[in-house]
Amino acid sequence: MNCPAMSASASSSCSYSTFRPRHPRVLLPHDSQRSVQFSRLHSEAASDGWGEKTQPQPQPPLRLLGKQSLPLRAVVTTSSSSNISTSDEIEKVGVLLLNLGGPETLDDVQPFLFNLFADPDIIRLPPLFQFLQKPLAQFISVARAPKSKEGYASIGGGSPLRRITDSQAEELSKCLSEKNVPAKVYVGMRYWHPFTEEAIEQIKTDGITKLVVLPLYPQFSISTSGSSLRLLEKIFREDEYLVNMQHTVIPSWYQREGYITAMANLIQNELGKFDSPSQVVIFFSAHGVPLAYVEEAGDPYKAEMEECVDLIMEELDKRNITNAYTLAYQSRVGPVEWLKPYTEEAITELGKKGVENLLAVPISFVSEHIETLEEIDVEYKELALSSGIKNWGRVPALGTEPLFISDLADAVVESLPYVGAMAVSNLEARQSLVPLGSVEELLATYDSQRRELPAPVTMWEWGFTRSAETWNGRAAMLAVLALLVLEVTTGKGFLHQWGILPSS
Ligand SMILES: C=CC1=C(C)c2cc3[nH]c(cc4nc(cc5[nH]c(cc1n2)c(C)c5CCC(=O)O)C(CCC(=O)O)=C4C)c(C)c3C=C
Ligand SMILES: [Fe+2]
Question: Which GO terms describe its cellular component (predicted)?
Fold first, then answer.
C-alpha cells in the first residue's frame, strides 16, 4: 500500500497551538505518543483512584509484575530497525493490535455475547456475587441473542470486524516495513476469534522479544482498552516468557496528528457531497458507556472524546470549515443512565430545531461494525428523516485509510525507544488524561478499588446493590434468580417490560 510519509518526527512536532482543551495539558514533543509499560513503571494513580482524572501525581516506587521480580533495566533502543541487536541477541519486534471482536456467523452471536457479558469490566458484580458472573452472562446472552442476531443478519450475517482488523494489521505491517521497522503485527480480540490468548501464543511461538501493544480504540475506556489491558496483564503475570519480554503500551492516541487529519479529511470529503456544505451540522456519534464509569470509576473516556472532537474541529477550522457540530452517545444497553446526550434524542432535537442537513461521524471506533452499518445507517437515518432532516450523510470509518495506518505506524515507531525502558518522564506522565505507567497503575488510576458499577443491564440494579448486600444480599439474589427463571419460562417480566429482553 501507499504509506504516506508522515514521519515520526514530523508527527511529533505537531502542535495544536490554538486548541484550548477542557483539561489543562502541556503539549510536549512526545504528546502525540504516550506509551506505557506493563511492568516497570509506577506513575502514581490518583490518591483514591476516583477523583483525579487529569493530573495524577507520579511516584517513584516500582511495582513489578509476574512471578519474579526482575531488576529494572533502562534499555533505550533506537527505532531504525526492528531487528535490533543490543548485545548478542537479535530483537524481534511484534505489534499486538487489541480489539473487541465480533461474531462471524449468526451461530456465534450468543457465545460472543456470553464472552462480553462475562467480562467484569462490562458487568461488575460486588465481590460477594462474583460467582454469579457466568450464570448471569449465560442468561443475558441467551436472552439478548435473538435481537442481536437480527442486527447481524441485516448486515450480512456477521460482524466485519475480523476481516477489517486483519486488513489493518496487514497494512500496518507493510507500512512499518516501508519505514524500515519490520515487525510482525498480531490481532488479539477480547470477545471473539482470534482471541488475545491465541495472539499471545503466536507471539511466543514466533519468539518476539519486544512487543508494542496498541489498542485499536482511539480513546481509552475502562470497558474497552481497559478490559483488554486487564486481560493482558493477567496473561503476562502468569507466563514466564511474557514476564521477561520487553513491551510497551500505547493506551490511547486520539490526539495524534495523523489520526486527526485523516478524520478531518473524511469529514471534508463527505461535506462536499451536500448541496450546501456549510449548512450541514456535523454530528459526532460515539459509543456510550454507563455514566458511572466516568463519574464513579474515573473513566477518562468522555474527556478524551470531547478533546478529540475539539481537535478535529480545530483542524477543520484551519481549512475554513466552521460548521456547527455536536457530540452525542449511542448504543445504550439497558435503562441505567449512560453518557448524554443520547444520539437518538439529539437527532430528534436537531430535527425539531429545523436542521435540514446532518452528517453523522462515528468517532469511537475505527472500523465499520454493527453500530455503524445498522444503528447509524439504518435506525438513526430513519429517525433523522422522520424528524425533519432532509439530507443525511455518514462519514465512513477509517479502516485502512493510508494516512491513518501511517500514523499508527508512526505511533509504533515512536514507542520503540520506550520498549523495556523507563518509558516516560514524570512530566510527560502528568500531562496525560490517561496517565503513564504500568498497566497495573493505568487501570488503578481509574479503577483502583474496582468498585461496583451500576451494571449496564438492569437486573442487579435491583438485586445486587450495596444495600442488598447489607441486608442479606444472598436472599435478594435468590429472589432475582427466581424472577429470572420466571421471566425466561413465561416470557414476561421486568426485563421484557424495560426492553432489556426482546418481547417474543
Ligand atoms: C469505543 C467503543 C465501545 C465502547 C465504549 C463499548 C462499551 C460497551 N458495549 C456494551 C455492549 C455491547 N457492545 C456490543 C458490540 C460492540 N461494541 C463496540 C464498541 C464499544 N463498546 C463494538 C465495535 C461492537 C460491535 C462489534 C461487531 O460485532 O461489529 C454488543 C453486541 C451487539 C449488540 O447486541 O448490540 C453489546 C451487547 C456495553 C455494555 C458497554 C459498556 C459498558
Ligand atoms: Fe459495545
Answer: chloroplast membrane; chloroplast thylakoid membrane; mitochondrion
